[in-house]
Amino acid sequence: MAKGIGPGKMIRYALSFLLLVSACSVAAGLLIRQASFRKTPYEQAFRSDPAILRSHVEYLAEQCPGRNCANPASLNKAANYIEETFSLYTAEVESQTWKETENNLRNVIARFGPDAGKLLIIGAHYDVYGDIKGADDNASGVAGLLELSRLFSRTPPSVPVELVAYPNLEPPYFAGPNMGSSIHAKSLADGGVRMKGMISLNMIGFYSGRQKWPYFFIRLFYPMEGNFIAIGGRWKDRMLARDLKAGIRGAGGVRVISYSGPIIIGVDLSDHRSYWDHGCPGVILTDTAFMRNENYHTKRDTPETLDYDKMSGVVDGVFNTAISYRE
Ligand SMILES: [Zn+2]
Q1: Rounded to the nearest whole angstrom, what is the distance from the C-alpha of residue 126 to the centroid of ligand 1?
Q2: Which of 84, 115, 214, 271 has the most neighbouring CB atoms within 10 Å?
Q3: What does the pLDDT profile of the chain (327 residues) look like in tens digits?
Q4: 172 Cα: distance to centroid of ligand 1 (angstroms)
C-alpha cells in the first residue's frame, strides 16, 4: 500500500511548481519583449520637424469626404500630394497601378539609397475607414513617410529603400488581393527583388491615456501608460524588431517597446503582413491603435489630438535605423 503524501511535502511541491511557472513566465516575457539596451547612436545634425509633420497630417485630414475608394476625388488628392512631396526630394518617384484602376487607384513609391543590396521597404496606408479625417489612422504614418523622404535627401540610407504609400488597407480590402501592399509585395517577389524587411508605419501619432492590453499575460510585461511607440511582429521578425528598436532608442525622442512572438491581436493588422507572404520579415510600428486611441475609426480622429514631438521621435528613429544598416 502506497504511503500518502504529507502536507509538508504537498506545500513544497506546490511552491516548486509555482516557482517554475513564474520563472518560465519571466523568461517568456523577456523573450517576447526582446529585452536589450542596444542603442544606435544618432549622428546627424538634423532631425524631422514636428511642424512639417503636422502640416502633412492637416492636409490629408482636410480631404473630405474621407479618402478611400468610395470617394475617389479625395483619394486622388491625397495620392497627388504624396507624389508631389516625394518629388521634392528624389527624382525616383513612381506610381504603381493595377487592374482595379478606374479611379486612378495607385501605390506611390519613392526610392533612395544604393542600387545594390537587399531592399528595405517602409510603408504606410493613405486611405481611411469611412468618412472620417483619419489623422492618426493613418495620415500620421504617411506624414512620417514624407518626412523620411526629406531626411533621406540629406543623408541617404545605407541600403536600398522604397518608401511606399498604399490605398486599400481598410475594409473591405484588408488582407485581399487589391490591398495596395499586396500588389507591391507581389510585384517585388515576381521581379526577383531580394527583400531585407518591411516596416509599416500604422498610427504613430497618439500618446496619452491609459494603455489597454487584451491579455493578462501581456499586461504583466508591458507599460500601462500610453506614452510609447510599439513594434510588433512574429518571432521570426525579431532581428528587424531589434534593429528598429535600437534605432528609435538611439534617436532618443520617444519610449519604444517591442513584441516578437505568436500572432496575437494587432500584430498582423497592417501592410507588413503582405510581405510575410513572400518570405520577407515585417513589423508594424504603431501607437497600438484601438488599444489606446479611443478616437479610432471615429470622426474624433483629428489632427489636434496628435503629439507631433513624439511622432518626430518615431520618424528620427526609423531614419536612424535605415542610415545605419551595414550589410
Ligand atoms: Zn483603420
Answers
A1: 10
A2: 271
A3: 445 678 888 888 888 888 888 777 777 777 777 777 899 999 999 999 999 999 999 999 999 899 988 898 999 999 999 999 999 999 999 999 987 656 678 999 999 999 999 999 999 999 999 999 999 999 999 999 999 999 999 999 999 999 999 998 888 888 888 899 999 999 999 999 999 999 999 999 999 989 999 888 888 889 999 999 999 999 999 999 999 999 999 999 999 999 998 888 888 889 999 999 999 999 999 999 999 999 999 999 999 999 999 999 999 999 999 999 876
A4: 11
Neighbour-count burial for 303-316, b at 16+ CB within 10 Å, e otherwise = bebbbbebbbbbbb
Expressed in angstroms and rounded, the spacing between residue 51 Cα and the centre of ligand 1 is: 24
Domains of the chain: 50-324 (3.40.630.10)
How remote is the CA of residue 43 from the centroid of ligand 1, in Å? Answer: 35
**CA dihedral of residues 239, 39, 221, 140 (deg, nearest 10):** -80
* Span from the CA of 165 to the centroid of ligand 1 (angstroms): 15
Verdict on whether the full-model pTM lies above 0.90 = yes
Secondary structure class of 150 (helix, strand, coil): helix
The string over 20-41, giving b where at least 16 C-beta atoms fall within 10 Å of a residue's C-beta and e elsewhere, is eeeeeeeeeeeebbbeeeeebe
Centre of ligand 1 from the C-alpha of residue 201, in Å:
12
Grid cell at residue 159: 541600403
Distance (angstroms) between ligand 1 centre and the Cα of 304 equals: 18
CA of 202 to the centre of ligand 1 (A): 9
